[in-house]
Amino acid sequence: MIVLEEPVTADRDDDAIERHGGLTVITPHRAARSTDAVDARALSSVRALAGGRSALVWLYTPMMLALADAFPAAPLVFDKMDELASFAKADPRIAPREHELLRRADLVFTGGRSLFRGVEGRTRNARCYPSGVDVAHFAQALTAAPHPDLTPFRGGPVFAYTGVIDERVDLALIDALAAANPGATVVMIGPVVKIDESALPRRANIAYLGKRGYDELPSLLAGADVALMPFALNEHTRNISPTKTLEYFAAGRPVVSTAVPDVVADHGDVVHVARDHAHFLALARRAREHDASRARRAAEKANAATWDAIAAAMRDDLAAAGIVYAAASPTRKNSAALA
Asked: Distance of alpha carbon 250 from its chain centroid, rounded?
């Protein structure tokens, strides 16, 4: 399998190639900021590595539609994990390219029910698979010692968010939660993206731990009393189906969320879903009280949604569509794969 990443700005022009068993990853390095996700040089690298083999093109972003053009005889799969056109500072070319990609795709996967509704009627063969979870990985939080970086916050409740901090996070809600709970700490774990750091609320009991490795997440969650999904309810979050929901479940953390439609529809019986800011603050306090029934249902949901089970079902969909290939399904978002 060949995975083509989006280009990164560097001091040189070349395509870095890494091999991991049967997986080859191409990362284009460009001295000048690339105006597109795929250029002629990257396509040449893919063609050279593919040789004369038959191909399957699997796209995570419409911005790589040129890869499908380079292999016109190959089956085309679009794995739609986000409503990319609704992101802040989104490239205006995303929407028209997605329209074309949906028209041409042999099979479309969507990462949530809201995304699925958005493609129904626009493509000929779509399937819905909300996010899965590596249960064994996140279940380490049940027995792991809290991460050393959480040591300064022991002695009071810890409300934790893991993920990108961008235009989808309700920063006013974070500020209100910290203000209403001066004896607690609100820990924000993840990189700040597409928003100015000056917009972040600053209080003595709000801690920003920055981007962390996947391997650190269980111990970081082990030190949390309540896991947060404090999403703003706007055009940026209308179609999201947060992967972190099941990760929090597998980690055994109670979850408080704003009323994101897919969260309400898929997990409203387990997640504490808030109507507004005041309700979110009340639920955050209430969620600290152990609820055995809710915890059991959360664990059951996580165990039923493993990535292995989802991958097996997706392979069945590929076979039903007449798409047969030997490699495992690609898993890197914002990339394109050739199998």
From this structure: 16
